[in-house]
């Protein structure tokens, strides 16, 4: 075997020296405060069995998609599931991608055109940033949830447009940020997008299954919860979190769907999802429409977690969040890893988030809450945290 390139070895050594070296974790049977399975759908035997039954009842006995969706992989189940997704999210259309990463890379690398402008929140997910890097459009980040800075950028774009140079503007954010768990003021973003004639794009990966109108059916996401679905150009819904399965969908107009089918390379040049994967998405959506108890349990746990951290004096450590993601800022890779290891030794699976995933000095413990966590577990892990940091 040839020698490993020296430059790559040096980069790995630097990661180790910075206490930021990544390793694949070994599974341990700990209390889950780390997974994105917010509603327990990934562990649901009912969803597993109903998916199998659905495939058998419809005589779908195929293990793989057999090709890309544009060649041989566009089985009928795709159309059925996309129609269900579009109806559930009150969107004209839905287009399924193989993952949230593929959806964001496909959208941002193809939709914004040369000379267009992308204005994105600095804390947007890596998949959004990677897609933007592949785009021919100009791109500028604005400080996290800082709409004064965003409006300054928009005013600059407006000045250029007034000189007769027309280009499209895309404002990009997330409804729940994956590393902070906080949310932007979506109504203000809609106002700015309408004022400056922009296209608003919102990634709802960590909002689906968590936010929604429970009187109708829960978990539609934060955009629908606030009744703004008709004001947004595109929504990216990822299924690997609240739905407990795999894949993603981009919601938008029929023209947007047609464009993505023709120009999104991460859609065109990849084998489609298997019928089993698509059936799991379909059954998970059916459960999301009916499963109000799990959604309410999750909301109760979020409320209880916030109450407990206040009573224990931990609130100053945490980023403000009403979502399933709760983050305690503990600067320094070495320190945050040490506390995470202590929590894990006591039976709680809490993961440290290290720089460079987050900026240096913003290292954190990330607590993911679920419908199946008990109040005893929540109290226990926070009391332990309190004893380690005070």
From TrEMBL:
The keyword S-adenosyl-L-methionine does not apply. Keywords: Pyridoxal phosphate, Transferase. GO terms for molecular function: pyridoxal phosphate binding; transferase activity. Its cofactor is pyridoxal 5'-phosphate. Pfam families: Aminotran_1_2. One of its GO terms (biological process) is biotin biosynthetic process. Residues 28-371 form the Aminotransferase class I/classII large domain. InterPro entries: Aminotransferase_I/II_large, AON_synthase_class-II, PyrdxlP-dep_Trfase, PyrdxlP-dep_Trfase_major, PyrdxlP-dep_Trfase_small. Belongs to the class-II pyridoxal-phosphate-dependent aminotransferase family. BioF subfamily. This is 8-amino-7-oxononanoate synthase. It comes from Flavobacterium dankookense. The lineage of its organism: Bacteria, Pseudomonadati, Bacteroidota, Flavobacteriia, Flavobacteriales.
């Amino acid at each position: 075997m040839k020698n490993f390139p020296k430059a790559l070895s040096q980069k790995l050594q630097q990661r180790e020296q910075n206490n930021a070296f990544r390793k694949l974790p070994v599974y341990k049977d700990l209390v889950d405060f780390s997974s994105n399975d917010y509603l327990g759908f990934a562990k649901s035997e009912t969803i597993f069995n109903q998916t199998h039954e659905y495939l058998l009842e419809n005589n779908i006995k195929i293990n793989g998609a057999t090709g890309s969706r544009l060649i041989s992989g566009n089985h009928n189940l795709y159309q059925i599931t996309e129609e269900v997704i579009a109806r559930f999210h009150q969107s004209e259309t839905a287009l399924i991608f193989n993952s949230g990463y593929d959806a964001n890379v496909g959208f941002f690398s193809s939709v914004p055109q040369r000379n267009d402008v992308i204005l994105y929140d600095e804390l947007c997910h890596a998949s959004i940033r990677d897609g933007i890097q592949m785009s021919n459009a100009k791109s500028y980040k604005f400080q996290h949830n800082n709409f004064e800075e965003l409006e300054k950028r928009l005013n600059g774009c407006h000045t250029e447009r007034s000189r007769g140079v027309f280009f499209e503007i895309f404002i990009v954010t997330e409804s729940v940020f994956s590393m902070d768990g906080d949310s932007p003021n979506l109504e203000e973003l809609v106002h700015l997008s309408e004022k400056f004639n922009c296209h608003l794009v919102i990634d709802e990966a960590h909002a689906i299954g968590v936010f929604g109108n429970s009187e109708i059916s829960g978990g539609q996401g934060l955009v629908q919860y606030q009744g703004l679905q008709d004001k947004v150009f595109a929504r990216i819904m990822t299924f690997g979190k609240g739905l407990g399965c795999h894949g993603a969908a981009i919601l938008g107009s029929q023209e947007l769907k047609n464009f993505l089918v023709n120009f999104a390379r991460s859609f065109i040049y990849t084998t489609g999802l298997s019928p089993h994967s698509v059936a799991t998405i379909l059954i998970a959506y059916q459960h999301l429409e009916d499963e109000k108890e799990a959604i309410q349990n999750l909301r109760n746990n979020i409320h209880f977690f916030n109450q407990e951290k206040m009573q224990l004096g931990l609130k100053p450590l945490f980023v403000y969040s009403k979502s399933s993601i709760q983050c305690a800022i503990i600067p320094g890779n070495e320190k945050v890893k040490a506390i995470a290891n202590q929590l894990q030794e006591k039976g709680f699976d809490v993961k440290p988030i290290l720089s460079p995933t987050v900026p240096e000095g913003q290292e954190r413990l990330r607590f993911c809450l679920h419908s199946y966590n008990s109040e005893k577990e929540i109290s226990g892990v926070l009391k332990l945290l309190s004893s380690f940091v005070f």
